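Justification of computing resources. Each target in the renewal requires a structure prediction run like the one illustrated here; the chain below, 534 residues long, is used simply to show the kind of job we budget for.
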Amino acid sequence: MTELRTDATHEGTPQLSTQPVEVTQAEFGIVGWLRWVWRTLTSMRTALILLFLLALASIPGSIFPQRGSNPIKVNQYIIDSPTVGRFLDKLGMFDVFASPWFAAIYLLLFVSLAGCVIPRMIAHWRILRSRPPAAPKNLSRLSDYRTLPMLAGESAADVLGLAAAHLKKSRWRVDAQEFDGQTGWVAAEKGYARETGNLLFHMALLCLLAAVGLGSLAGFRGTVIVREGSSFADTRSQFDSFQPGRLFDDSALPPFTFTLDKFTADYQRGGQQNGAAREFAAKVTVRDEPGAAPYGKLIQVNDPLDIGGVKTYLVGHGYAPTFTIRDPKGAVVFRDTVVFLPQDGNYTSTGVVKAPDTVPQLGLTGFFLPTAAVDQILGPHSTFPAPDDPAVFMSAWDGDLGLDSGRPQSVYKLDTSHMQRLGIKAMRPGESWTLPQGHGTVTFDGFKLWSSFTVAHDPGQGWALASAIAAITGLALSLLVRRRRLWVKVSTSPGGGTVMEIAGMTRSEHASVSDDVEALATQLVGRATSVPMQ
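Resulting structure tokens:
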């Protein structure tokens, strides 16, 4: 390294030397490290990386079932794959958007965007209030450049005034310097909406993140399965699963109730999309509060029930067969409609019946088939989702159900470790099965349909919609508007004449200002009237 040094033999005269010099690195203290971390975090590159990570972190939410939308499938996933399921559950894969690691990325992105956008907004505000930049000394260096002759007897002030008037009429921001005998110019700038749109897009994204955060903190989401003829009350104990925000208060739940009167489903018959769903609808009777007059409502997939900002969405349905179990003396020991969970698109459904009041205790496992079929490969299965030929295939067990152990167990799973199988039977509605060993009878009385509802309140939903609209508007402005500048300069040449120059430049990539230069030149070439410069 060549360095300017002072040699003692030359009485302090600076001398050039290539001798290495020891450089002491300044200490990078806590303040320096904090400044470096803040600058790195608030850079646009970091914001883009965090945005990419947020999108990447959202992928498991679309791959694995989520407790917030379908807790039944989550429980079934863990039952089917207990080792993998428990491991994924610990990682938060079944509740991605409420996991700590997702929240960390979310908060870092929010801080990064705020640190990027707010300083830029302040700088842009100052630019909006400032005057267009003065004409450069050498306009000829710009790519879009023209020179025009001065007419005989025409003053520079007249030309500059006419240029300023034309630019103002075309909605340019204009500044001017009067001709002082040597030079005078008019500067104009247009396209500030490009940067405004860019900032609007980023600010809208920031508001969108805030709205989503507000919904997560102050809102709630719960799911519940309601059978035909059964009711639901909007209290926390009625939900099958309930996920409140940290700032949510149970007293904010509106005290509405509804009864599922009837669920209807329509499927396509024939063609390439045979069995595809065409319409789902839940007919309910609603009371907005205790003592209020009831009214009917049809809840459909894109038409939720809305009461006090709390929306009830129809998200799924299935079948619930009804069974009656009698002891050997003919006394009814169990009669209920049991929810069976669909396993495929044709609603081949599995379920469990537990009868703890029998001696010994009885348990039933099996399939409900809306349109029953049996073959050697698939076994019992449904060939169509509608109940064209319903049947159940049940397996009976007796022994200890494990209900007295105090350990929680799923209502959709039967623990047969302390039970023995009695037999297998296929039944259609109205048929009965006399159990072996004198354990009584099981009757398949029929079936009902059940609907799965998601009840949710998101106070940030309206803000999120407004932010999304603002983001689209800002993106359109930033892509369609061109930021550009024009100058008209009149100056005396070295030979004593007067020269008029027109030039322009654009601050947008892959854009040109030549059309604006030509339009201004055309206006000035055909000038005939004098306009005083303001």
